[in-house]
Amino acid sequence: MDFFLGGLWRGLELLAGLDRQVYGIAWLSLRVSLSAVILAGIPAVPLGLFIAQKTFPAKKVVVVILNTLLALPTVVVGLIIYGLLSRQGPLGFMDMLYTPGAMVLAQAVLAFPLICALTVAAITTLDARVMPTALTLGATTSQAAWAVLKEARFALLAAMAAGFGRVVTEVGAAIMVGGNIKGYTRTLTTAIALETAQGDFAQGMALGIILLLIALGVNLVSFLMQSRWS
Q1: Pick from 38, 48, 43, 69: which is nearest to 161 by CA?
Q2: Which residues contact 114 (CB under 8 A, 6 or more apart)?
Q3: Cβ atoms within 10 A of the Cβ of 16, count?
Q4: Top-ranked range on mean pLDDT: pick from 39-43, 141-145, 196-200
Q5: Where are the alpha helices (DSSP H) in 70-187?
Q6: Distance, first Cα to last Cα, the chain
Q7: Are 112 and 43 in contact (CB under 8 A)?
Q8: Which of these, 4, 104, 154, 191, is most buried using a 10 Å CB contact count?
């Protein structure tokens, strides 16, 4: 117990002292994860809208695939992205491996099916008359689609927050494609694993506290935005 409490106290001291290394790692994690969620959300939300609103033969198959990908292991994603970006891979010429960009790409792949599946679920539960009514009133197809998204805005915001939670806490893909390079690709999760393995429990605890605070902050922002829009 003394070991745990001592590590917790030392971790709080690092936070209060504005330790540059600790906050630098936190800032990189936040930047990478937010970029990944935005990158994933740009195609995931329109695709989710299309799947939910349209009827086509393979619709059920597509939904099943999306739901299956929700449990996609992070190490598998890391392995795939690593293979694509390695020097022998088809995208090796981009020289992205072991960079923050590679981490953003891997995390976007992880967030995409979650955001898309939650978008499908959110729009499916809406009143089916929203889009037809908008079209009847003279709206264009894009305007009608925007009306549907506005009706589902609370659920979509929750989907983006869930996507962020999925990627900010993952460690497998980040290590595989980022390399856990100090001061460059070391994120909160990879740093926690490294520092704890090296016996620096206090540093790991400080980073863990920041990770929890970030998760709390994202959910708080989501709640406040929903309260403001309601």
Answers
A1: 38
A2: 70, 159, 162, 163, 166
A3: 9
A4: 39-43
A5: 74-85, 100-124, 130-136, 141-151, 153-168, 172-178
A6: 46
A7: yes
A8: 191
Q: Within 13 A of 174's CA, how many CA atoms are on the CB side?
A: 25
Question: What pTM was estimated for this model as a whole?
Answer: 0.89
> Are 143 and 206 in contact, with CB atoms under 8 Å apart?
no
27-188, CATH topology level? MetI-like fold (1.10.3720)
Tokens standing for 143? Answer: 């305007």
* 196 close to 204: Cβ distance less than 8 angstroms: yes
The token pair that represents 158 in the structure block: 């929750």
Residue 176: how many CB atoms within 10 A of its CB?
23
* Residue-averaged pLDDT of the chain: 87
Helix (H, G, I), strand (E, B) or coil at 145: helix
CA-based torsion, 224, 225, 229, 230: positive or negative: negative
Closest CA to 73 of 191, 180, 166, 161: 166
Domain ranges of the chain: 27-188
Residue type at position 18: L
Q: CA separation (Å) from 36 to 74, 104, 193, 197?
A: 14, 5, 22, 27
- Separation CA 173–CA 230 (nearest Å): 37
The single residue listed with the structure tokens 């894009």 is 142
pLDDT at 7: 64
